[in-house]
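User: Could you write out the 3D structure of this protein bound to guanosine-5'-triphosphate? I've included everything you need below.
Assistant: Certainly. Input first, then the structure.
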Amino acid sequence: MAELRTQLGEDDDEEEPEYLQFKVVLLGDGAVGKTSLATRFCEDHFAKQYKQTIGLDFFVKRVVLPGDIHVCLQIWDIGGQSIGGKMLSNYIYGSSAVILCYDITNYQSFQNLEDWLFLVKRTFDQTPLPYIALMANKHDLAHIRAVKPDKHNQFAEENDLYSYFVSARTGDQVQTSIFRIAADLAGVTLTKPELEAEVAQRPTRAELVNHPRHDPAHPEVNADDIARERRWFG
Ligand SMILES: Nc1nc2c(ncn2[C@@H]2O[C@H](COP(=O)(O)OP(=O)(O)OP(=O)(O)O)[C@@H](O)[C@H]2O)c(=O)[nH]1
């Protein structure tokens, strides 16, 4: 995995820690929530309004792992319309991690990950593949999901992908997933208490989402969904 050690200070202050730097690329169809995930990862903010990413956008996430290991993730948010574009391979090239994102309420966005994954493999060609994660977003809409967890797990297993279920909207599992990805890239094994401590340190207020709770059309809405909305997430 590509890794760069550097000092990230504004000046040459000797106190500035040494960061492990990794390029992380978010890929997936338009409107699956890549920008929302990046802003949740990095700014702990969520915007309801959809603003299409043209080309790409950049974010930076700094994480301190157990053992005082400082990690800087350069997050490349690639617009979903780039799939047919000539620049896509250039965007993917040199990444340490690729996060394949889909919207659990949009089956097509899941199916199209075959194409996104193919493009990643083609970019890396004979060279080792980066860390690749499968990220199911919009988990707050689990009551209208179109992609069953079984399908997700099968795709992840078949392609040897790390697997995450998140909601950029509520923040559910977002900080945990990025913390885990940072640790995996840095080669740090996290214990459960370490992961929980990180999440507890950065509470995100879960937003109440209006679900049709007792709608007979969505009988699968259950107590877990309701509890999820009320929890505090990292
Ligand atoms: N309910 C819900 N909506 C979400 C979630 N994440 C994103 N959205 C909404 O989905 C829409 C698209 O989100 P974006 O983050 O702009 O999607 P994108 O994948 O970056 O889209 P492109 O720029 O076209 O590639 C926006 O209206 C978001 O508010 C989520 O977890 N839950």
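The pocket of guanosine-5'-triphosphate is lined by residues 30-36, 47-53, 79-80, 137-138, 140-141, 167-169 (CB under 6 Å).
User: Perfect, thank you.
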